[in-house]
Amino acid sequence: MTAPVDLTAVFVPNPGEFFRVKLALDIAIEQVLSEPGCLRYEITEESEDRIVLTEQWASEEDLANHAKGAAKQDLDESLSALLAEPVALTRG
């Protein structure tokens, strides 16, 4: 049995775009939670200048499938003009 994969994603909204970024994440969270292998996908910290999303996947394969999935692609498209910097993704 493989160990779960833990990720933290930090989103930094452009000035004035916090609520649009949060809305895009809220929509994605609903979709992603139904994906196979998704154990956790939730906002764990938020402020006007950053939003932290914590993820946990049952396996690397589930994470790879998520990365290619429609919900992730839709989120990336929704956020493309709303973020001040690229999403910072860390494992662990």
Protein architecture, described:
With 92 residues, this protein is an alpha+beta fold. The chain has one domain: Alpha-Beta Plaits (2-Layer Sandwich), CATH 3.30.70. The protein is 37% helix and 32% strand. It has a four-stranded antiparallel sheet with strand order 2-3-1-4. Helix 1 runs antiparallel to helix 3. The protein is globular, with a radius of gyration of 13 Å. The two termini are 18 Å apart. The mean pLDDT is 95.
Concise description?
Keywords: Monooxygenase, Oxidoreductase. The protein has 92 residues and is of the alpha+beta class. It has a single domain (5-91), classed as Alpha-Beta Plaits (2-Layer Sandwich).
Features:
92 residues; alpha+beta; Alpha-Beta Plaits; 4-stranded antiparallel sheet; 3 helices; 37% helix; 32% strand
